[in-house]
């Protein structure tokens, strides 16, 4: 029996990390796709070789670490190069996810957290998608608190570059409102019980 695969997403500052921490506290395995992608670009020998073939030796520092700022400067000015890089990273993350899901097969469900996500069943293995939302001013305040060197204009720029809350809402099977007014914990527990089949 494979566990249900629940996607969880939300814009920067929406509080999806907090929501994931609550699910973890309830004993639910959480796969952080963005963190794993970073780990794989540093440690997966197949992926490293592919990236060097695509971008050249400068993609990695002399210590073997992925040269993230340099790669970003190359791909963000070139949409086709970014697409090619994503085409290398994505299958490795998918394979990593599948082996992770198999390792957690005794759980009724697992969570997959990612900034970018498609609707459940849209070229992915997700059964349901949970979207975490929060008002934009609150999101900006949260980001400034954890990242004081970022300006409000910079944060608004990041938010502008992410998909909109309206687009994200179209992906959602469930929405968690994290506005510090709505009581979040009972909603998470309700979803937890539903995903466990209770």
User: Unreliable runs, pLDDT <50, ≥5 residues?
Assistant: none
Let me know the number of strands.
Answer: 5
Task: Please tell me the CATH architecture of the largest domain by its name.
Answer: 3-Layer(aba) Sandwich
Structural class of the helix and strand makeup?
alpha/beta
What's the pLDDT, averaged over the residues? Answer: 92
Which H/E pattern describes the elements? EHEHHHHEEHHHEH
Strand count, sense and closure of the main sheet?
5 strands, parallel
CATH H-level name of the largest domain... which superfamily?
P-loop containing nucleotide triphosphate hydrolases
* Spatial separation of the terminal alpha carbons: 17 Å
Strand-residue fraction?
A: 5-15%
How many helical stretches?
Answer: 9
CATH topology type of the largest domain:
Rossmann fold
Strand order of the largest sheet: 2-3-1-4-5
